[in-house]
Amino acid sequence: MKAFLILEDGHVFTGTSIGAKKEVISEIVFNTSMTGYLEVLTDPSYAGQAVCMTYPLIGNYGICYEDTESLRPWPDGYIVRELSRTPSNFRCEDTIQNFLKRFDIPGIAGIDTRALTRILREKGTMNGMITTDENYDLDTIIPRLKAYTTGKVVEKVTCSEKKVLKGSGKKVALLDLGAKNNIAKSLNKRGCEVTIYPASTTAEEILASNPDGIMLSNGPGDPKECTEVIKEIRKLYESDTPIFAICLGHQLMALATGADTHKMKYGHRGGNHPVKDLETGRVYISSQNHGYVVDTDNLDPKVAVPAFINVNDGTNEGLKYTGKNIFTVQFHPEACPGPQDSGYLFDRFIKMMGGEE
């Protein structure tokens, strides 16, 4: 069956329908990872977005449910150049086609994803529609595309109740803003007992459990939409409890302490982004997935100073908070998918809590 990807600037791509046969409007973004498509699909940070994979062949090793980063896929839609119909892998349990259908996610294959990526790089991220309706009317659709917003998607992806991963080491409270599984796993395999809290949890409840440290997770959407969460994070900041924050958590801590954020032209999404540690000068290759960034031009050095920068474009990739046991990063040290270069940051966090590095 034919499918169409319609962008808000009027571009139309024609391909083949994959996954669910339904119409969807979403923000169109691209990811440059060559592998790890399952981890991309199950990353809650993609809620409210449709993902274009720039690597031309997707699905060749199938689906292995052990590798998922949450209980379900979160993108609104999926866009690929060529979809492998017959995956080959001894761990394969399913195909992408069936996976998308099972979770009612529409997609499109057979389009020029390189051309689509060039448009998004040149014009910036924009909204689009995936549809199988051959009688589409651009005059009707484009105003709908321009009106679309992702909204408050953190509420959609956070866990519904508190849960605990038992451990014999330090006690960590993980605020789930759309957390990937490997954040909790990365702490748990280092001995930590991890208590995962819904995003709506108050600072008072978290602090009442007397954690050794607090972890703020990744998540989707515009950080400025999370007004109530920002208020609670301010209280956590004032508590003097050691805090480590990743991605959306990094942005929310910045907003909670008086800094600002803005939307990037097309964001960073992929497993090959170089970040520089400003303290050591060392460069790490990182996994990233974000469309917003912290402004550092007017950052108050009495509150925080830049700790990492992106080598490609110079944008902020991390902050160290002055006089506090708090550090935050924009990239993903837990990776999945992506390189494990910066996994040492979890060890730094454990040492900050008074444990062994």
TrEMBL record:
Domain named Carbamoyl-phosphate synthase small subunit N-terminal: residues: 1-131
UniProt keyword Secreted, yes or no: no
Self-association and partners: Composed of two chains; the small (or glutamine) chain promotes the hydrolysis of glutamine to ammonia, which is used by the large (or ammonia) chain to synthesize carbamoyl phosphate. Tetramer of heterodimers (alpha,beta)4.
Active site: 247, 332, 334
EC number(s) per entry: 6.3.5.5
Gene: carA
Protein name (database record): Carbamoyl phosphate synthase small chain
NCBIfam families membership: CPSaseIIsmall (TIGR01368), PRK12838.1 (NF009475)
Domain of life: Bacteria
